[in-house]
């Protein structure tokens, strides 16, 4: 299937909808987590730090809720760990920051942005993330409220207007 260029606008009406995914949708379709660190950083560079943080946090939550921290680091999504961790710190969600920080320590302290290298560290260290997974599940009840408070407090950093390539099956 081919991608279709669509016009995306993130303005006050989208922000006021309280739909975190809609707010970071330009990043979702524009930032590759699959083509390595250079491409990832290049794709991220056109977006504000607050956008990058929420994007990374959304990936982190999606993966951990689907298969735990092990899955997060094992998959391509592990490339976002640093932005997610920094995002939680920026938003002052220190318990979440501490969770990611502890997970990185269990992988040697600074997981690679390269998926193969991270997978090698998972095999080498054989980390047990079960306690961190459980803690995340316990903490995240009101997380979306905090994310939306941060977005609303920094709304101009989330404004976007432009064309984005979206796979046709998602339109």
Automatic annotation (TrEMBL):
- Name the domain of life this protein comes from: Bacteria
Q: Which Pfam families match?
A: DMP19 (PF14300)
InterPro entries named among the record's database cross-references = DMP19_C
Residue intervals of the DNA mimic protein DMP19 C-terminal domain: 46-154
What name goes with this protein?
A: DMP19 family protein
Q: What organism is the protein native to?
A: Paenibacillus sedimenti
Organism taxonomic ancestry: Bacteria, Bacillati, Bacillota, Bacilli, Bacillales
């Amino acid at each position: 299937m081919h991608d279709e260029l669509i016009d995306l606008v993130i303005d006050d009406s989208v922000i006021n909808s309280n739909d975190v995914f809609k707010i970071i949708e330009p990043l979702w379709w524009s930032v590759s987590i699959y083509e390595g660190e250079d491409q990832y950083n290049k794709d991220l560079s056109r977006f504000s730090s607050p956008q990058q943080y929420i994007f990374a946090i959304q990936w982190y939550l999606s993966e951990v809720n689907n298969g735990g921290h092990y899955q997060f680091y094992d998959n391509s999504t592990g490339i976002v760990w640093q932005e997610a961790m920094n995002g939680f710190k920026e938003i002052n969600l220190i318990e979440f920051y501490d969770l990611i920080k502890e997970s990185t320590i269990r992988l040697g302290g600074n997981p690679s942005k390269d998926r193969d290298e991270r997978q090698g560290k998972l095999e080498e260290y054989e980390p047990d993330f079960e306690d961190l997974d459980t803690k995340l599940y316990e903490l995240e009840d009101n997380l979306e409220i905090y994310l939306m408070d941060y977005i609303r407090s920094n709304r101009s950093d989330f404004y976007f207007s432009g064309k984005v390539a979206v796979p046709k099956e998602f339109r």
